[in-house]
Known about the structure:
Structural class: alpha/beta
CATH superfamily of the largest domain: Response regulator
Shape: elongated
Number of strands: 15
Largest sheet: 7 strands, mixed
Strand content: 15-25%
CATH architecture of the largest domain: 3-Layer(aba) Sandwich
Amino acid sequence: MTHHATPPPEDRPPPGAFCGRQLFITGKKSVWRFLLILAVGLAAGACTDGQPPVPRVGILCGLDVFASTADGFKARMTELGYVEGRTIVYDHRKTNFDAAAEERILRRFVAEKVDAILVFPSEVAVAAKHFTQGTSIPVVFCQTNIEGTGLVSSIPEPGGNITGVRYPGPDLALKRFEILHELAPGAKRIWVPYTKSSPIVPAQLAVLRPAAALEGIRLVESPADSAADLLGDLEARSRSTDPGVDAVLFISEPLARTPAVFPHIGRFADRFRIPIGGVLYSLEGYSTVFGVATDNIAVGRLAANQVHKVLRGIAPGTIPVVSAESFFQLNYRVARELGLEVSAGLLRQANEVIR
Length: 355
């Protein structure tokens, strides 16, 4: 039987190809050469497929009305070349005005060292910045007011580990007031419920108060620490034939639109035949007249562009914050049911009319 000192040519592995193949070694010099090459190969990841680790993005939606923002985000990420489950992984979580749950989720994202965190709206963004302090985990916010929150140093250079998409809260608050005044010019007392501790509220009130005073309108503010506070205010007003308000204006804040509160506001408004405006919302048969906000899908797409930059290695604090555009939705059917006069000009302004 013939023995080959070295394997025949057709059996020899190509140079440097050691993964999953039989390696033929002869002689002491070859052994040392092999060990050296193997060490270099392991250090360089030669026995892997050469693919970088799959990035993992934690997504936290803190308010149900913004839930579809994640749909716009994922759709745009797909357009940018990411394939969910193959070239990117999303850990998508949702809460609904639940600070304790949001803290647990954010702490877990940090512990697991995700490659980026996408958060919305404002309250969750503030929490994400807090819980990622001292880490290098990038935070990208959207549907978020930057006024009064201390989230960024400036729009061109947000600083730290954060960037995102600004929710133009004060601008939208003023536009909501103007539309409500046009729809219900006789409403001289406008009830404004809001979360007392929310950092995004003061900047909105700062533009609303002088605008209302200029029109001879009194803002009946109802700051609350909880749903029970708002419901107590409603109950007290319901005991009188005159509730003390002629319309309801929702500003950007997390409490009034929750399932624990909104149906009660809807029932109150229905009883006294007063319009609710500011945010387009329906629950348990009660609906607002109009909403001026941002388009969730469009905002999600903007957020994807920011996350893409982060995943490419750009420091988040150097990525300028972008602002979302307003989106005006008018429920024409509800307006007519309440006897409100809708002008042709207002109809032309609407991005969406529900009939």
